[in-house]
Amino acid sequence: MVLRSTNSLLSRSGIGFLIMCSAGLALNQKAVGQSSQISLQDLSAFKDPGSSWQIAGDVNANLEKQNVLRTGKGTGILVNLPGKRNHGQDLFSGFEHGDIDLELDYMMAAGANSGIYLQGRYELQLLDSWGVKTPRPGDNGGIYERWDDSRGKGNEGFEGYAPRQNVSKAPGLWQHLKVAFQAPRFDASGKKTANARILRVELNGVMIHENIELNGPTRGAIGGGDEKAAGPLRIQGDHGAVAFRNISIRQYNTPLPELTGLQYIAYAGPVARDADFSKLKELAKGNADALTANSPVLANEYALVYKGTLHVKEAGEYNFSLNTSGGGGMIRVNNKDGRGNRAKENLPAGNVPVEIWYARSNQWDSPSLGLSVSGPGLREVYFGDAITPDQTDPILLDAPSNTILRSFMDVPDQPKVVHAVSVGSPEKVHYTYDMDRGMIVQVWRGDFLETTPMWHERGNGTSRPQGAVQRFGIPYFTLGRLAGQQDAWIADTTGSGYRPKGYVLDEEDRPTFRYQIFGSAVTDQIRVSADGHGIQRELTVASPAADLYAKLAEGAQIEVLDKDMYVVDGRSYYLQLQDAGGAKPFVRDANGRKELIIPVRGRLSYSILF
What angle do CA 487, 490, 492 make, to 5 degrees? Predict the structure, then answer.
């Protein structure tokens, strides 16, 4: 990048005139306009769906039965049920897409296999990978391999990408997938000028891929391995039972805007917020190839004013945001002042004037200046200096063996847990225990903890789960006394005699928590299952009162699937009752939610599977 000046005060120092979202700006996925949702009232959105695909109103799985989904009447859920007589076939959308954001929920049957092919050519694998410790490209969320038989037996597959960590849920639970895809680019003659890219993939709230360049189609692509600017969305239908809902897409078809004709004036600083630029000393002026705040020959304090033209390809509402460091800036679009470093304007198609001010105000941060633009059918585009990433190396805590960390824990929409004990396991299943309430706050699958907020510089004492987290609702005590089954659950320790007594470790460094409540001594043993499918909890209560109960779960919904098996909160996790000493659980309404309650008769054990 060069700022051309007659006196050469400004020289080559910035990087990148136009950085599209493929280089990182897609992380925010800012765009104006609404996503469109594929109607699942019937199969009319798809071409020749075949007989294995159907629309249902409900669906669930049996963990013990391979490739089996049970459906209920209604609409809103797309289900594929291939079998021995009906092998199933792939499903193709009635539309074709180029650049796209895709978001959906999906559910796998036990042992099932499927996939989503972007443009019908680039496959994201969907698989029952429940409990897999080290995922491969063929596991759930992986970018499937390309394939070439000429490479020789055992070497045909290449350029596949495993997810960064396995955050897959159990069969029969809804999983959430978000994909940002950039189609390959072609010139007017049809020659490919840029490869397709997977900009970002999030599975169950965790980023598993970022900025992956696809040198060609993956195995099983349509078109015999060719590539196009557009293609259909394709769902694999011949490998197993799978269900989908809430399928939404946002296509980006608007050509990229161009920022041209940039001219600049550089002024000597310091520059006050309300400065009259006509009275400042002019250092240089001229034409600029691009926005930049970088120039080693300018003083520590200076100002830059840019004027240019934005070529808008489609009319609509556009958002503008300046990204600065080492100083601040302001923007004016179409001769209208924005709010400091941001602007939102309804613009006509055509040429729009843009003015940008940047003032260098400190010596500690590297100076940088960039402009982000988003609008109708346009994924965010960035002009200017590369965004300087946070230079702090994250402090990550792994759990190659059973590992315990005490910290604060922030939980969304809840009070901070100030006596949190997080327990990690080599099975890649972890949990946090609140010693102030005798409850399990959350479980998660994947990597253990990020402790940067806790240990970097002064720190604030908190740690963060790294994997896909299942939280258990509003903080509550596991044990409480109820004079009647509809009494409100205890909200604090008043009158309970609650006293935490710490925990003891077994020979494998796994903790068993201890406390007193309502005159009873309680041991709370939590163990990660050897297959990595969840956790097992065993509560032992010495001489429990006759009206002592345990709250096992709460959520928007609690459904009974089979004997002693419950699915909680819209099929987010399973709870399997194992031993309750003959006590019978019941589901009750409480403040617009559901609670699963059971009398305590000395010993209580159950599993949480997720």
Answer: 160
What does the pLDDT read at residue 279? Answer: 81
Judge whether 391 lies within some domain.
no
Q: Which domain holds residue 95?
A: 36-252
The confidence band for 296, taking pLDDT boundaries of 50, 70 and 90, is low
Q: What count of other Cβ atoms lies within 10 Å of the Cβ of residue 175?
A: 20
* CATH number assigned to the domain comprising residue 367: 2.60.120.260
Do residues 242 and 365 share a domain?
A: no
Could you tell me the pLDDT band of residue 159, with boundaries at 50, 70 and 90?
very high
Residue 455, helix vs strand vs coil: helix
**pLDDT score of 154:** 85
CA 48 to chain centre: 33
User: Once rounded to an integer, what is the mean pLDDT over residues 507-528?
Assistant: 97
Domain boundary among 226, 252, 278: 252
Interatomic CA distance for residues 56 and 49, integer angstroms: 15
Q: How far does Cα 260 stand from its chain's mean position?
A: 36
Length of the chain: 610
Statement: residue 252 has pLDDT above 50: yes
The answer to whether residues 171 and 571 touch, using CB atoms and an 8 Å cutoff, is: no
Q: Are 442 and 411 in contact (CB under 8 A)?
A: yes
Q: pLDDT-derived band of residue 2, with 50, 70 and 90 as boundaries?
A: very low
The domain boundary, picked from 198, 231, 252, lies at: 252
CA distances to 132, 199, 204, 208, 409 from 468, in Å: 14, 20, 6, 11, 16
What is the C-alpha to C-alpha distance for residues 149 and 37, in angstroms, rounded to an integer?
39
Q: Provide the 8-state DSSP code for 390.
A: P
pLDDT in tens, 70-105: 999 999 999 999 987 778 899 999 999 999 999 999
Handedness of CA 127, 133, 136, 142 (dihedral sign): positive
What DSSP line would sit under 127-144, residue for residue? Answer: E--TT-SS--TTSTT-BP
Exposed/middle/buried for residue 222 (C-beta within 10 Å: 0-12, 13-18, 19+): middle
**What DSSP letter does each residue of 9-42 carry, written as one string?**
-S-S----SEEEGGGTGGGT---BS--EE---SS
- Cα–Cα separations (whole angstroms), residue 345 to 119, 255, 374: 33, 18, 11
Tokens in use for 217?
A: 């189609």
* pLDDT score at 34: 54
